[in-house]
Amino acid sequence: MPKQGDERSTAPQGPVPALVESYRKQLEEAERLDTPEGALVLHLATLFTSDGHTASGAAALSRELRAAMEVALKGAAKQGDSIDELTARRRAKAASA
Q1: What local confidence, expressed as pLDDT, does residue 83 receive?
Q2: pLDDT at residue number 1
């Protein structure tokens, strides 16, 4: 937390990069956005989208981001895709017929 008189801002500056927004959306859908693990994922995604990485640095950050996301989503209920939803509706309709 910035100290009084600290000129740094904790508010985001400018538009949120698409990669960060994508991770944020996935965490929100999994109800993991407001967890320490979710915060780490967003921090790593923000770092990844910043400039100044060497190729090896970007690769290492990418691995850490992937691992952090895996930990953040561990135990989360999996979202069904549209095929799963269609299959469930067909089964329900067949069961009621």
Answers
A1: 66
A2: 47
